[in-house]
Design brief:
The chain has 304 residues and is an alpha/beta fold. It has a domain of 143 residues: Rossmann fold. The protein contains 13 helices and 8 strands. It starts with 24 loop residues before the first strand and ends with a helix. The N terminus is likely disordered.
Length: 304
């Protein structure tokens, strides 16, 4: 790895580092529970990166938990109440688009929106529960697709002030960012390119990582830690085999499972970071403000 974090070049930004020639954009923003606790680095780095790119993430007022999982029984409308309430909050506060970062929150909200759009009877009943005339349609976005579709990777490449050249990264999607494909429609669920495109725009060397869409063990971390550890170790050793400096994730549960596994079931030495941390770093934010853990910070120092 030959990244030099102190070396900053001039990008196509204004005096404050914001991307020029782009209309400022404000998005409704749903952080979710984990970004207020263990995943604060994901929230902080995303806000900083978006600010540099001319995007304001306007956090919903008085948001509530999305429920964490989509109801598997489709006639259990009460299980859809939590995500429906979040969508209603977004609309009530003036947003017809709602951005999120956590893969669990994204999956839950996107699929709930997809289901309600196609099931008017469910929308009617949930509207009754929530004491409104009708539930509105709100488009749920992941920040990755905002960066791809609204900003564009070429524009991001132009805005980079600290190219991450020589940094070998393994993009990790996990399960919920891409599946089920028909409902999520974010990228190809088997051969995704979304995160790769972003990381290449930052100057990273994206490695061929065979486990990029494997499951990390998810909630088995609570009920069957042996299964979770086995899943995580497969992913981590895949990153080691690819000679990755960093494993790059979007999901707080994935990040936790992978780091937990390293702590107790074999440390591979590969830091697990969030994609906005690298994005904000490349856009000129100091590494010490972005929530890198000790392993990640040490890797960056090693390359400086």
């Amino acid at each position: 790895m030959v990244i030099k974090p102190a070396a900053v070049r001039s990008g196509r930004g204004d005096e404050e580092g914001n991307v020029v020639d782009q209309e400022k954009k404000t998005l409704g923003y749903y952080p979710g529970c984990e970004l207020r606790t263990r995943a604060r680095a994901l929230d902080i780095s995303a806000r900083k990166a978006c600010e540099s790119l001319g995007i304001t993430l306007q956090e919903l007022k008085d948001w509530t938990c999305c429920g964490g999982l989509v109801a598997q029984v489709k006639d259990n409308y009460m299980a859809l109440l939590a995500p429906a309430r979040v969508l209603l909050q977004a609309h009530t506060q003036g947003f017809n688009e709602l951005a999120t970062l956590c893969a669990f929150c994204f999956n839950t909200l996107r699929r709930a929106s997809f289901f309600l759009e196609r099931h008017p009877e469910a929308r009617r009943k949930l509207a009754t529960f929530l004491e409104v005339e009708m539930l509105p349609q709100v488009r749920v976005l992941h920040l990755l697709e905002v960066l791809r579709d609204s900003v564009g990777f070429d524009r991001i490449r132009e805005a980079v002030r600290r190219p991450l050249q020589g940094l070998r990264v393994a993009p990790y999607y996990g399960c919920l960012l891409l599946r089920p494909a028909q409902e999520i429609s974010l990228d190809d669920p088997e051969e995704p390119t979304l995160m790769e495109g972003l990381l290449k725009a930052l100057g990273c060397d994206v490695v061929d990582f065979r486990s990029r869409t494997d499951c990390c063990g998810s909630y088995h971390i609570v009920t069957n830690q042996g299964v979770a550890a086995q899943c995580a170790q497969v992913i981590l050793h895949s990153a080691v085999d690819a000679k990755a400096d960093f494993l790059v994730a979007s999901c707080p549960v994935c990040q936790f499972n992978l780091d937990w596994s390293q702590a107790g079931h074999g440390n591979t030495g590969v830091p697990v970071v969030y994609f906005p941390q690298l994005l904000a770093l490349a856009l000129g934010e100091p590494a010490e403000t972005l929530g890198f853990d000790e392993r990640g910070a040490a890797m960056l120092r090693e390359g400086s």
